[in-house]
Amino acid sequence: MNSELSGTRMTLLIVSLAPTGFVLLLRLTTPALDQIYASPAGQWIQIAAYTIAGTGFLLGQRMLQRVQAVLTLEEKTP
User: Fold this and answer.
1) Can you give the pTM of this predicted structure?
2) What is the pLDDT of residues 9-39, one digit of tens each?
3) From the CB of residue 16, how many other CB atoms can be counted at a distance below 10 Å?
4) Mean pLDDT throughout 2-7?
5) By the 8 A CB rule, do 16 and 61 touch?
6) Which among 38, 48, 66, 78 would be 20 to 30 A from 55, CA to CA?
7) Are 55 and 65 in contact (CB under 8 A)?
């Protein structure tokens, strides 16, 4: 059961880091997009996106901890 949760945690980490990687990839491969991301609107959109991704990651971690606690209780129950 722990291996299934480890896989889920890894998926959660990848999904939460994907927006950052995507933006870095776009900035490196398409310099013209720097103007979009450098504008105040672009920066606010990025901040909002990173906040949503970070919040999703934290909520996912909280859910996985609760699932782990339930599984631990089930294993201890005869």
Assistant:
1) 0.66
2) 888 888 888 888 887 888 788 888 777 777 8
3) 19
4) 74
5) no
6) 38
7) no
Q: Which of 26-30, 65-69, 74-78 has the highest mean pLDDT?
A: 65-69
d(CA 40, CA 4): 42
Whole-angstrom distance, CA of residue 49 vs CA of residue 15: 13
* 5: helix, strand or coil: helix
For residue 57, give Cα distances in angstroms to 1, 15, 34, 35. Answer: 21, 8, 27, 29
Task: State the residue for tokens 């490196």.
Answer: 28
pLDDT at residue 2, as a whole number: 64
Distance CA 57, CA 13 (A): 7
